[in-house]
Amino acid sequence: MKNFVELTGHSMKGKLAGFLCAAGGRMSYMSFMSLANSLMLDFRMFVLPRFVYVAAEDWEGNSLKDEIRGRIGEFATSFQKAACLVFRSRLRYPSISCCAKG
Questions:
Q1: Considering only CA atoms, which of 80, 65, 2 is closest in space to residue 38?
Q2: Predicted local confidence at residue 98, as pLDDT
Q3: Whole-angstrom Cα distance, residue 58 to residue 37?
Q4: What is d(CA 25, CA 54) in angstroms, rounded to the nearest whole number?
Q5: CATH 3.40.50.360 is held by the domain 2-90
Q6: pTM for the structure as a whole
Q7: Per residue in 18-60, pLDDT tens?
Q8: What is the 3-state secondary structure (H, E, C) of 4-65?
Q9: What does each C-alpha distance from 79 to 29, 56, 62, 75, 100 come to in angstroms?
Q10: Where are the domains of the chain?
């Protein structure tokens, strides 16, 4: 991931990033923050403050628990709204609506 960001970071300036993270346990839930900080500070990206962290205990067999699936849905909705705001801020005529109402 580090190489990917270093090689492509310049082309991601002003873009939106979000994090869906998976790990073996709950103790690593902040591990992605160094990447988020780098994206924000080094490459001027917008990082969605809502993230989803999934640990081993969030699975029921091969499926995610309903709570996590709901959080992923909330993440997707938040990402869509944030993307719309970022896009709208770049329009020459920001009064034009690019987002669905609601």
A1: 2
A2: 60
A3: 26
A4: 8
A5: yes
A6: 0.78
A7: 999 988 778 888 888 889 999 999 989 999 998 999 999 999 9
A8: HHHHHHHHHCCCEECCEEECCCHHHCCCCHHHHHHHHHCCCCEECCCCEEECHHHEECCEEC
A9: 20, 25, 26, 6, 13
A10: 2-90
